[in-house]
Amino acid sequence: LQVSLDMDRIPEDILAERLATAKTVGLVGVGKLGTRLRELAEKKGVKTLLCDPPRNLDEATELGESFFSLWGNGMGGCELTGEGLETFLPLDSLAVADVICIQVPLTDEKPFPTVGMITADWLSKCRPDTCIICFSSREVVAEDVRGDSRIHFIE
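Given the sequence above, the corresponding structure tokens read:
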């Protein structure tokens, strides 16, 4: 199972109100849409926390079990960019954010499955007033928590 995310959606109007009061935005998936969201948040002076499978899968494979022990489901890593070392955090680290945006492709393939990645356990780590905006398929959120009032699905 692998479903592509529609990268042509423009999220600015969806986020404008939330970014006006947010101090921190967590981004789960930092591809085309995630990068646009990051730029929008940082332009408004909002700190961003990034979570994405490692950009260099060969390196993660070399690290093997120690990598997965360190990062859990693999949502972490780093990438050397033209601006220096860019750090990606584990999914649990984003629970402190005011707003969390999820924009990942739907897949059940290892090493980084996204089906059901947002769980009751993870939500329990988030603040009660956290706003979670899901640009991805509903299936990235575990079925038993899809009705959580903090989660807003953009379809």
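DSSP finds four helices and nine strands in the chain. Try to locate this feature in the token string yourself.
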